Amino acid sequence: MSILSRRLEVTQILNHNETGDTRTAEQLFPAVYEELRRLAAARLAHEPDGHTLDATALVHEAFLKLGTEQSFATNSAFTRAAAEAMRRVLVDH
After folding, report:
1. CB 17 within 8 A of CB 71
2. pTM for the model
3. I need a surface site. Which of 4, 10, 39, 70 has the fewest CB within 10 A?
4. How far apart are CA 58 and CA 37, in angstroms?
5. Which own/partner pairs from 78-85 qualify as long-range (CB within 8 Å, at least 24 positions apart)?
6. Residues 22-45: pLDDT tens digits?
7. What DSSP string runs through the chain?
8. How many other β-carbons are positioned within 10 Å of the β-carbon of residue 46?
């Protein structure tokens, strides 16, 4: 799946969130997982050696920190929030 089609899919999922669809978080995570893993790997590349988190763990922790109650209007808003959540996880860790 191309990046453009994936972003369109994410936008559609986020639009469903605006209508009160409770399955949004369940649909959103698989749609953005690989993009978030790349972002996590880039963040971890700037961390000291020997870090106990890997990209997968960082994505999962950030997703939990985001919670399921938030809503995001756009894919970029979600990505910014996820990046901030990853930063907070790394700071807390």
Report:
1. yes
2. 0.67
3. 4
4. 8
5. 78/10, 78/14, 78/28, 78/32, 79/32, 79/35, 79/39, 82/32, 82/36, 82/39, 83/39, 83/43
6. 555 566 667 778 888 988 999 899
7. --HHHHHHHHHHHHHHHHTT-TTHHHHHHHHHHHHHHHHHHHHHTTSPTT-S--HHHHHHHHHHHH-SS---SSHHHHHHHHHHHHHHHHHH-
8. 7
Q: Which of 30, 37, 77 is nearest to 61 (CA)?
A: 37
Residue 72 one-letter amino acid: F
pLDDT band at residue 76 using 50, 70 and 90 as cut-offs: confident
Supply the pLDDT for residue 78.
78
Question: Tokens 């399921």 correspond to what residue?
Answer: 68
